[in-house]
Amino acid sequence: MYMKISITPKEINEVSADIAIAFVYQGAKLSGDALILDRAVSGSLSRLILQDGFEAKTGQCICIPILQDTGKVLLARKIAVVGLGNKKMFTLDVLRRVGATVAKMSHAAKAEKIICSMPESSNIKDAQKFSQAFAEGVLLSSYRFHTYHGTQKKKDPKQKELKEVYISESRNVHAKNSILGITQAETLVQATNMVRDLVNLTSADVTPLVLAQYAKKIIGKNISVEILSQEKMKKLGMMAALAVARGSVHPAVGVHIVYKPSGAKKRIALVGKAVTFDSGGLSLKPADKMHTMKCDMAGAATVIGVCSILEKLKLHVEVHGIFLAVENMPGGNAYRPGDIVTAMDGTTIEVLNTDAEGRVTLADALTYAKSFSPDVIIDLATLTGACIVALGEDIAAVLSNDKKLAKKLLDAADETGEPLWELPLYEPYADMVKSKIADLKNIGGGSGGGTITAAMFLRPFVGDTPWAHLDIAGPSYTEKESRPDQPYGASGYGVRLLAHFLSGF
Ligand code: BES
Ligand code: MN
Ligand code: ZN
């Protein structure tokens, strides 16, 4: 789907669009554009608002067709008002959600072209951030995944969909910055949608090898991609990751992406969990917990997505994107509960549950990342169901051995509207992943705190390197569509957050 968002110097009533949209704060009188629209329809907008008890809550909207001839007073076919909620609570994320709602409403009304202007705000002055958040909302919510729609649902070429969004900046003072914001949003959403596609594709289509080959597509001027074959992984001693892959017919594949811009002062490793399907292995998952497990490579997909735009964003930091792709299956050669495997750094791991496979693969991925002496390691992993119990579907967890790093990530998440919450690396829980007969065991032993014990398992593999672990099990995939900017399925959580975080170097 192609959508163009642009700035126009014309007034909201001067553009022939399918819908002209004005924004209103809760409890506020109609003013500005809303007033222009209301006057054009001789006050029927304000009458309808009164009759329907429209409160202008965030994302609440009214859309009405114009039946009388408005001549040159108003060129749009329909008008709409969209609520911004309480003016004091207005944030960029509200604007992002409003953008998403506007797009949803327009799709539903079969509008191809809409016009609106940015709301006035006393707390946000930055025109670039403003248009970026709004454009992100519009673009993020407009994502569709049609790869598997067969003949019955073939797209009707005559079906209308939103193609053009005009933002009126009649005074034109901010136009330049607004355009920058829109361009930034386009870049970020393009990468996010690439991640969504990768995660939404089934595990039959995205095998470890396919995922690795996909990463190669982003090779560029400053970006190289090295593929680690299963043999190479064996030579490196990645026996933990390889153990997980043994139950599958698909061999493991490692990927090492390197972005090296000239003059970079810091080196950051991004490590992604890359389990292309998680059946649980011999500790098989119940049927109702298994069908969404194509999402278990979302961490790696996000790493690919972020790396794909580093050059475009002109980021000044060296980035290493690393993942070890495997499929967790219960085949005849599968690793077993009770087995002890030796990770790349020599740590022995007692496998007590083959469904706690993510941490076993990450043990080697983190060791490999550490071997390049990065200043910071960040891993992203759909690691624990316990994280969904703790924080719900929308919120990811961050656990870090470095307070400043955690703070930076939390701030970035705040800015990009990707909910993130810190959980502690609580020292006493380290004992819960100590094995009686090996160095570590891969489960905490059923005393709760599963997200923390998983992180305590990972911690030794990064040593003293400042490290943050993001458990994205909740937000990476949704069957509930609880956020307007996030359609059914993969969300691409983390792309904007990490891009923003990296822009701080
Ligand atoms: N990939 C799952 C975690 C997961 C669950 C991701 C739900 C997304 C949605 C992970 O490999 C897993 O199975 N974890 C187990 C760990 C347990 C066996 C200690 C879990 O959370 O049940
Ligand atoms: Mn699992
Ligand atoms: Zn998993």
Oligomeric assembly = single chain
In the CATH classification, which architecture of the largest domain applies? Answer: 3-Layer(aba) Sandwich
**The CATH fourth-level homologous superfamily of the largest domain:** Zn peptidases
Detail the poorly predicted runs: none
Ligands bound here?
Answer: ligand BES, manganese (II) ion, zinc ion
Shape descriptor: elongated
**Main β-sheet description:** 8 strands, mixed
Report how far apart the termini are. Answer: 34 Å
Q: Please give the CATH class of the largest domain.
A: Alpha Beta
What percentage of amino acids are in beta strands?
15-25%
Q: Tell me the Rg in angstroms.
A: 25 Å
Number of domains: 2
Q: What is the CATH T-level topology of the largest domain?
A: Aminopeptidase
Please give the count of helices. Answer: 15
Strands of the widest sheet, in order across it, are 7-8-10-9-13-17-14-15
> Overall mean pLDDT score?
94
Class of secondary structure makeup: alpha/beta
**Helix share bin:** 25-40%
Q: Total number of β-strand segments?
A: 19
Characterize the structure shown.
The chain is α/β, with parallel strands linked by helices and 505 residues long. The protein has two domains: 10-143 and 161-196, 3-Layer(aba) Sandwich (Leucine Aminopeptidase, subunit E, domain 1), CATH 3.40.220; 203-502, Zn peptidases (Aminopeptidase, 3-Layer(aba) Sandwich), CATH 3.40.630.10. It is 33% helix and 19% strand. The chain has helices spanning 32-40, 44-52, 92-108, 127-141, 175-200, 208-216, 230-236, 239-245, 287-290, 298-309, 357-370, 385-391, 403-416, 450-458, 495-502; strands spanning 4-8, 19-24, 61-65, 78-83, 113-116, 164-168, 223-228, 253-259, 267-278, 318-328, 340-342, 348-350, 376-381, 396-400, 420-422, 440-441, 467-471, 477-478, 489-490. The strands form four sheets. An eight-stranded mixed beta sheet has the order 7-8-10-9-13-17-14-15, sandwiched between helices. Strands 1-6-5-2-4-3 form a six-stranded mixed beta sheet, sandwiched between helices. α13 links the parallel β14 and β15 (420-422). α11 runs parallel beside α14 and α13 packs across α15 (495-502). The longest helix is centred in the middle third of the chain and has 26 residues, at 175-200. It is elongated, with a radius of gyration of 25 Å. It starts with a strand and ends with a helix. The relative contact order is 0.11. The model has no long low-confidence stretch (mean pLDDT 94). Bound molecules: ligand BES, manganese (II) ion and zinc ion. Residues 278, 280, 355, 357 line the site of manganese (II) ion (MN).
